[in-house]
């Protein structure tokens, strides 16, 4: 079970009030966690990654265990603490805009 | 007793203003979708409880919301807007080719006959349609396929398709406008399109009378006379009496012919409204006076409507989707400003009152007349 922490506006869209949990088949990678998140919460499709290119939206960041995974490829494995459920995978809105 | 519901999109959420037919006391609901840019919110003419909203964010992209109960509750519907085929390129600001990239929905236009059918005007300019209440969207590729697409260029606000007019007397006729490409018309339900910009003169493009390239800000029509169109262009207020085949200027005695909004009185097809704005780039009312101008002669002769509007130190803008009229008698007129005010007039513009004064910057105003 992977814990995922969403920014406030995505929690509102997904109609959840706290961090969410997703199941991943096989290795927990950046891509597989995002895939599982979008399957469980289809309303988030297109809000984190572009529908077509699957690229991260520019003003979102992916953090885990104090590491920045924003620029990692989809197959990048997540830390063991995340896959074990001790630490959350963080999707963070970048400080930008007004 | 009949009433009205004003749907207001702002830079930081949506607001719904409701009143009875007197339009004196208002209830304010919102913010809905707080923190999101609400480019446009519009109800179905067939089912007033069915409302569609375009919700956009620099962080999270495009979301579309739908209400089935007049805006009391909302459900998120489809946000996948993919161009048909190979998107190709349009002109970039520097004149170089730039790939078409979806950015946001500027305008939603529900069908006149089916609450599940909605047209969406998007940036980069294209027309999309849903036939399942917003769950899925498909491009109507005939517009970009017209052939002039590679020559379209963005205005300061982007390459946006911001105006969609459906002809209530002809289900296969539709008008759209793009900044900065111009106006287009289809007579076959969207399969093919033709530019309708003859008579427009734009000094900011190499050929001022080019077939495409004009920065049309808004087009309006009266439902009973859809072949007559009124246009607020980036400079010049224009009129067409032949469904856009030709245009002539009707700016007349306006203090400036620049502006964004234009609309038509519900019961008087020759009565039109604009809000003159100073430009280049200032984009606020001349002399610090917020004035709506009304013509009762279909243009050229304009009177300033000032009662209830600030007549000093006012430097707000009124964006292109931010004026609407209701269907009551007398006709109600509404507009919103970049300063967060929504003004309403229950007597066709003679007197104005602020319904709300301190919203975020207003991006769109639509009104529903309720039974």
Order of helical and strand elements of chain A: EHEHEEHE
CATH homology superfamily name of chain A: Beta-grasp domain
CATH class of chain A: Alpha Beta
Strand content of chain A: 15-25%
Q: Quaternary arrangement of the chains shown? A: heterodimer
Annotation field: number of helices of chain B: 0
- Computed over alpha carbons, the radius of gyration of chain B is 19 Å
Give the % helix of chain A.
10-25%
Helix segment count of chain A? Answer: 3
Q: What is the tally of beta strands of chain B?
A: 30
Structural class of the helix and strand makeup of chain A? Answer: alpha+beta
Tell me the number of structural domains of chain B. 1
Question: How would you briefly describe this protein structure?
Answer:
Chain A has 98 residues and is of the alpha+beta class. Helix content of chain A is 22%, strand content 19%. Chain A is globular.
Key features?
heterodimer; A: 98 residues; alpha+beta; Ubiquitin-like (UB roll); 3 helices; 22% helix; globular; B: 371 residues; mainly beta; Methylamine Dehydrogenase, Chain H; four-stranded antiparallel beta sheet; 42% strand
């Amino acid at each position: 079970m992977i814990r995922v922490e969403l920014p406030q506006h995505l929690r509102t869209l997904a109609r959840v009030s706290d961090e969410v949990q997703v199941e991943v088949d096989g290795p927990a990678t950046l891509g597989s966690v995002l895939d599982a998140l979008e399957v469980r919460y289809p309303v988030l499709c297109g809000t984190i990654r572009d529908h077509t290119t699957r690229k991260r939206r520019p003003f979102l960041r992916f953090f885990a265990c104090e590491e920045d995974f924003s620029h990692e490829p989809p197959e990048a494995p997540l830390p063991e603490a995340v896959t074990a459920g001790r630490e959350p995978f963080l999707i963070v809105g970048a400080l930008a805009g007004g | 007793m009949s009433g009205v519901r004003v749907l207001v999109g702002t830079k930081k959420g949506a607001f719904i203003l409701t009143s009875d037919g007197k339009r004196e006391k208002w209830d304010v609901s919102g913010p809905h979708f707080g923190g999101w840019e609400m480019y446009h919110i519009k109800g179905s003419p067939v089912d007033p409880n069915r409302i569609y909203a375009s919700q956009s964010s620099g962080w999270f992209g495009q979301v579309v919301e739908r209400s089935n109960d007049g805006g009391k509750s909302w459900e998120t519907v489809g946000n996948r807007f993919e161009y048909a085929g190979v998107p190709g390129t349009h002109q970039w600001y520097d004149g170089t080719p730039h790939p078409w990239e979806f950015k946001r929905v500027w305008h939603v236009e529900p069908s006149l006959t089916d609450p599940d059918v909605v047209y969406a005007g998007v940036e980069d300019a294209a027309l999309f349609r849903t036939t399942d209440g917003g769950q899925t969207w498909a491009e109507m590729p005939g517009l970009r396929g017209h052939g002039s697409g590679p020559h379209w260029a963005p205005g300061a606000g982007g390459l946006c398709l911001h105006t969609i007019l459906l002809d209530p007397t002809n289900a296969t006729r539709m008008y759209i406008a793009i900044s900065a490409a111009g106006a287009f018309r289809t007579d076959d339900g969207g399969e093919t399109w033709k530019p309708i910009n003859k008579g427009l003169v734009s000094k900011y493009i190499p050929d001022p009378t080019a077939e495409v390239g004009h920065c049309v800000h808004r087009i309006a029509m009266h439902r009973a006379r859809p072949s007559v169109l009124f246009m607020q262009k980036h400079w010049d207020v224009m009129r067409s009496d032949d469904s856009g085949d030709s245009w002539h200027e009707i700016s007349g005695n306006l203090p400036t012919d620049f502006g964004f909004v234009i609309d038509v009185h519900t019961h008087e097809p020759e009565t039109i409204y604009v809000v003159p704005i100073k430009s280049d780039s200032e984009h606020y009312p001349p002399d610090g006076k917020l004035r709506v101008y009304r013509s009762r002669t279909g243009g050229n002769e304009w009177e300033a409507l000032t009662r209830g509007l600030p007549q000093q130190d006012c430097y707000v803008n009124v964006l292109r989707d931010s004026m609407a009229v209701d269907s009551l008698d007398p006709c109600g007129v509404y507009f919103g400003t970049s300063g967060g005010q929504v003004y309403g007039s229950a007597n066709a513009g003679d007197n104005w009152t602020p319904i709300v004064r301190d919203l975020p910057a207003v991006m769109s105003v639509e009104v529903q007349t309720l039974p």
